[in-house]
């Protein structure tokens, strides 16, 4: 009997009582399935190195969202030189129960130092942007650096094997020594060694929400730039900047 593929993955929020730390954890298999289905649908492909890094960032970003209020929208853009020059973009919100991400390796500006640009949007509030110089070459190190410098508190990010990930953030009165000495093996068995309380669960799927109708106003405003191409072949191709999906837009569609 075939096991149905889950559309959503569930993130658990767990309080580690005696340590005053918040543990976020999940198996991201459903989200990664959605990611690969998206790539296949739009005939996209990432090199193995960028693919692995983007998956790690999608997982840690989703865990971060669960540590934040429901009404916020977040986006992270990593401009890094190591392990090789690339941009990684991830964004999403608990309100939409979705995250999306993309890796860029062409036309990337080489920074003097690896940087993270983190944006937080909340309805009725001014956007907040943090610019964080990064240390290290792994997604785990980048996320921990973001917490130290932007969130102003320590956190630990762990890849637990398979499609499982965890993020542990310090709360007021946290046992910082315990937090900093944790290993992935410690996190995997934390329910057996620490007093924990499950607080809530949230769910996420890989989804951008882009459509050709949403791109039409942008292309229409730039129609003069594509006039020759539209005249010669009757269409232009437009890519979503968030997920890389490409849509064919015809002259008739623009007229309507």
Question: What are the key terms here?
Answer:
256 residues; alpha+beta; ten-stranded mixed sheet; two-stranded antiparallel sheet; 32% helix; 34% strand; disordered N terminus
What does this structure look like?
The longest helix has 19 residues. The radius of gyration is 20 Å and the shape is elongated. It has 9 helices and 12 strands. It starts with 8 loop residues before the first strand and ends with a helix. The chain is of the alpha+beta class. Helix content is 32%, strand content 34%.
**Distance from first to last alpha carbon:** 49 Å
Fraction of residues in β-strands: 25-35%
Q: What proportion of the residues is helical, as a percent range?
A: 25-40%
Strand elements, count: 12
Unreliable sequence segments: 1-5
Helix and strand topology:
Blueprint: E1 9-16, E2 21-27, H1 29-41, H2 48-66, E3 72-80, E4 86-93, E5 98-104, E6 115-122, E7 128-133, H3 139-151, E8 155-161, E9 164-170, H4 176-181, H5 184-188, H6 190-193, E10 196-206, H7 212-221, H8 227-233, E11 235-239, E12 246-250, H9 251-255
Parallel strand pairs: 5-10
Antiparallel strand pairs: 1-2, 1-10, 2-9, 3-4, 3-6, 4-5, 6-7, 8-9, 11-12
């Amino acid at each position: 009997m075939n096991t149905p593929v889950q559309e959503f993955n569930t993130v658990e929020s767990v309080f580690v009582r005696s340590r005053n730390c918040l543990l976020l954890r999940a198996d991201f298999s459903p989200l990664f399935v959605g990611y690969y289905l998206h790539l296949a649908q739009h005939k996209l492909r990432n090199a193995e190195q960028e693919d692995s890094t983007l998956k790690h960032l999608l997982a840690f970003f989703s865990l971060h969202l669960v540590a934040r209020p429901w009404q916020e929208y977040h986006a992270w853009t990593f401009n890094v030189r190591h392990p090789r020059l690339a941009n990684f973009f991830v964004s999403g919100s608990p309100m939409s129960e979705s995250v999306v991400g993309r890796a860029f390796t062409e036309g990337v500006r080489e920074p003097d130092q690896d940087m993270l640009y983190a944006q937080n949007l909340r309805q009725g509030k001014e956007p907040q942007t943090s610019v964080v110089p990064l240390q290290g070459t792994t997604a785990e190190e980048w996320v921990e650096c973001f917490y130290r410098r932007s969130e102003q508190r320590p956190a630990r990010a762990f890849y637990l094997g398979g499609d499982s990930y965890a993020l542990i953030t310090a709360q007021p009165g946290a046992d910082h020594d315990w937090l900093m000495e944790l290993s992935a093996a410690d996190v995997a068995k934390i329910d057996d060694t620490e007093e924990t309380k499950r607080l809530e669960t949230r769910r996420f799927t890989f989804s951008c929400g882009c459509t050709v109708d949403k791109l039409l106003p942008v292309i229409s405003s730039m129609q003069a730039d594509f006039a020759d191409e539209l005249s010669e072949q009757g269409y232009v191709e437009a890519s979503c900047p968030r997920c890389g999906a490409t849509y064919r837009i015809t002259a008739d569609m623009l007229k309507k």
